[in-house]
């Protein structure tokens, strides 16, 4: 009986999480457009709703009602699985995020590894989408996106390992508690930098957005998708973006710690600052070429993260118990 | 029949189903995807057996790595066919080998006396970590050596077939 | 057997079910709202408005495959580090030496690949 309760609980939270990611995507698309507008000295969408606030809502209604175009030669199974396999892992990663204090959907003992492992399945989705569309642009986009993803996954993982070394646990709630005194960004600044940059690469954001490069490949692996299937890719991207920002807050910025205000407020606030940072960088820097990107991952970040491991070990010993 | 037994059987059936489909289907792409599903189901089994860390490793390395590798191999080697199909010239020999290995595995696992799952472990991770750095230290370092050898071996294979 | 693990799995199954079902339901629900006129120019691949220049899925660079191969090895190494990371603190200096040895081996692999010129894209 209690099994059924847990199942129901899981299902309910799944609905909540998916809706949350939907809301996040809606808000962030607009936020992105407004931030980019201000950085480029214009105002962005202003007509739909007060100050353009309802713009994305209108976009969503439009997308839902668009025809579901499928290219003639597309493999039906792979074509449908692609977007699902990118969106589902992104939402799944929300399970272990503690929104301040112990407000977490499920306190997994291996939470940290879970958070890194589950989005790994996204790569399969990218490849399927690119391949299934039977289109040179999509295929190349899918391949490049996958190669980029796996190349940056290692340095990112190693940066996270350093935090685990200091905190002594793979449990996300424990990571929060371990930073009561000092946020880890002060103890592990290099890890923070590595994490931030590799995450930008993992989420396909400029300067690492070659797979989606609008001026190069039209729209990369999602060229042939329309309507809701297309928006699934975006839910995956913005969902993963927020999840990564929340994770950064958890790993380095002390999660929900802070005076006066409740922990949730602090957590969400800090994570939004990180998101803004990501957006700021996106609209400021030009993009990397595919070969520069790969070179950076293997010849700069991977060695750097290995060195960082040693440094972090020294920090760990210095800080003591 | 506890709830965990039911779950175990369910995951087992899913795993077996995916594996069968993967082996029997004509389409290579679906075969690989079925393998991915199979590996995820097995990860679920691991978790049920209190090996949560191993379950995550399964997903991280197998689904996020090996399946990706296979997909790359498939996509980079087919020359314009719309639907790469499975098939080979050596089917007689391969099936004999497969049946022989399968038979041995089944026979061995039926007769085996496996230890019971240790009950009440709060978390497998510290247990695992301490073992790797303690009693199993040699295994740990040896693994490092094997992985180094793997890199060297893999690269020499790839380079010799420079297109 | 082990209740906490079991309930974790049950939870995740429920969660995954919801996350998979919602998009499918949405797609289904709007099926009657969407127009549906397949074929014609829409069914062709998009190549900047011109007919498809070359058949896709031609064999591509080996580089992708090589990187995936190396990735797997480093993936396993990263996970092994994850396994020992939480307990490093309690074991002290000896652990550092052990980990140091492991990291040297990992770095050795990277160094080898580098020298072999495999880490170049294109």
Could you characterize the architecture of this molecule?
The complex is a heterotrimer of chains A (321), B (163) and C (122). Chain A has twelve helices and no strands. Chain A is mostly helical and 321 residues long. Chain A has one domain. In chain A, helix 3 packs parallel to helix 10. Chain A is globular. The mean pLDDT of chain A is 81. Chain B is mainly α. Chain B has two domains: 1-87, NADH-ubiquinone/plastoquinone oxidoreductase chain 6, subunit NuoJ (Four Helix Bundle (Hemerythrin (Met), subunit A)); 123-163. Helix content of chain B is 76%, strand content 0%. Chain B has helices at 3-24, 28-48, 52-77, 91-111, 124-133, 137-160. In chain B, helix 2 (28-48) runs antiparallel to helix 3. Chain B is globular. With 122 residues, chain C is mainly alpha-helical. Chain C has one domain (3-115): NADH:ubiquinone/plastoquinone oxidoreductase, chain 3 (Methane Monooxygenase Hydroxylase, Chain G, domain 1, Up-down Bundle), CATH 1.20.58. Helix content of chain C is 65%, strand content 0%. Chain C is built from three helices and no strands. In chain C, helix 2 (63-91) runs antiparallel to helix 3 (93-115). Chain C is flat, with a radius of gyration of 25 Å. The N and C termini of chain C lie far apart (53 Å). Classes of the chains: A mainly alpha (321), B mainly alpha (163), C mainly alpha (122). The interface between A and C is large, with 83 and 72 residues.
Q: What is the 3D form of chain C?
A: flat
- Mind telling me which CATH architecture of the largest domain in chain B this is? Up-down Bundle
Number of strands of chain B: 0
What is the ordering of alpha helices and beta strands of chain C? HHH
SSE arrangement of chain B, N to C: HHHHHH
CATH architecture of chain C: Up-down Bundle
Low-confidence stretches of chain B: none
Major sheet size, sense and barrel closure of chain B: none
Low-confidence stretches of chain C: none
Tally of individual helices of chain B: 6
Provide the CATH top-level class of the largest domain in chain B.
Mainly Alpha
Indicate the structural class of chain B. mainly alpha
Portion in strands of chain B: under 5%
């Amino acid at each position: 009986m209690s099994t059924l309760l847990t199942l129901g609980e899981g299902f309910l939270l799944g609905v909540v999480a998916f809706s949350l990611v939907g809301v996040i995507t809606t808000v962030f698309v607009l936020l992105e457009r407004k931030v980019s507008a201000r950085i480029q000295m214009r105002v962005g969408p202003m007509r739909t709703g007060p100050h353009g606030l309802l713009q994305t809502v209108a976009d969503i209604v439009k997308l839902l009602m668009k025809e579901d175009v499928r290219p003639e030669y597309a493999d039906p199974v792979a074509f449908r699985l692609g977007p699902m396999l990118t969106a589902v892992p992104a939402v799944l990663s929300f399970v272990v995020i503690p929104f301040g204090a112990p407000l977490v959907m499920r306190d997994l003992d291996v939470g940290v590894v879970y958070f890194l492992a589950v989005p790994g399945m996204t790569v399969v989705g990218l490849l399927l989408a690119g391949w299934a569309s039977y289109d040179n642009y999509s295929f190349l986009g899918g391949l490049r996106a996958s190669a980029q993803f796996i190349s940056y996954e290692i340095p990112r993982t190693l940066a996270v390992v350093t935090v685990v070394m200091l905190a002594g646990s793979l449990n996300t709630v424990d990571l929060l508690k371990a930073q009561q005194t000092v946020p880890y960004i002060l103890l592990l600044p290099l890890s923070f930098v590595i994490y931030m940059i590799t995450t930008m690469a993992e989420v396909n954001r400029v300067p690492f957005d070659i797979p989606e490069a609008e001026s190069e490949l039209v729209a990369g692996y999602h060229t042939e998708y329309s309507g809701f299937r297309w928006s699934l890719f975006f839910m995956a991207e913005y969902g993963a973006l927020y999840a990564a920002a929340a994770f950064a807050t958890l790993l380095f910025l002390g999660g929900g710690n802070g005076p006066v205000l409740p922990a949730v407020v602090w957590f969400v606030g800090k994570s939004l600052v990180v998101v803004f940072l990501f957006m700021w960088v996106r609209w400021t820097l030009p993009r990397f070429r595919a070969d520069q990107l790969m070179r950076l991952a293997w010849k700069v970040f991977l060695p750097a993260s290995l060195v960082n491991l040693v440094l972090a070990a020294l920090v760990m010993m210095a800080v003591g118990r | 029949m506890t709830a965990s037994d039911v779950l175990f059987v369910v995951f087992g059936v899913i795993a077996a189903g995916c594996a069968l489909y993967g082996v029997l289907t004509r389409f290579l792409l679906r075969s690989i995807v079925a393998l991915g599903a199979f590996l995820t189901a097995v990860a679920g089994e691991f978790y049920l057996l209190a090996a949560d860390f191993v379950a995550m490793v399964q997903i991280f390395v197998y689904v996020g790595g090996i399946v990706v590798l296979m997909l790359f191999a498939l996509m980079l080697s087919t020359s314009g066919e719309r639907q790469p199909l499975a098939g080979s010239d050596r089917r007689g020999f391969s099936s004999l080998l497969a049946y022989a290995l399968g038979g041995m595995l089944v026979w061995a696992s039926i007769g085996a006396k496996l230890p019971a799952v240790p009950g009440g472990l709060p978390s497998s991770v510290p247990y695992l970590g301490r073992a790797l750095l303690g009693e199993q230290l040699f295994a740990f370092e040896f693994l490092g050596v094997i992985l180094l050898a793997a890199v060297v071996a893999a690269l020499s294979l790839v380079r010799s077939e420079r297109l | 057997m082990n209740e906490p693990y079991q309930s974790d799995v049950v939870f995740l199954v429920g969660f995954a079910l919801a996350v998979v079902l919602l998009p499918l339901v949405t797609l289904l629900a709007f099926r009657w709202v969407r127009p549906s006129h397949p074929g014609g120019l829409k069914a062709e691949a998009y190549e900047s408005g011109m007919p498809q220049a070359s058949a896709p899925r031609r064999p591509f660079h080996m580089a992708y495959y090589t990187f995936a191969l190396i990735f797997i090895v480093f993936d396993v190494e990263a996970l092994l580090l994850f396994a020992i990371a939480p307990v490093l603190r309690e074991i002290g200096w000896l652990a550092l030496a052990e980990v140091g040895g492991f990291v040297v081996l990992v770095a050795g692999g990277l160094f080898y690949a580098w020298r072999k010129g495999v880490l170049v894209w294109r």
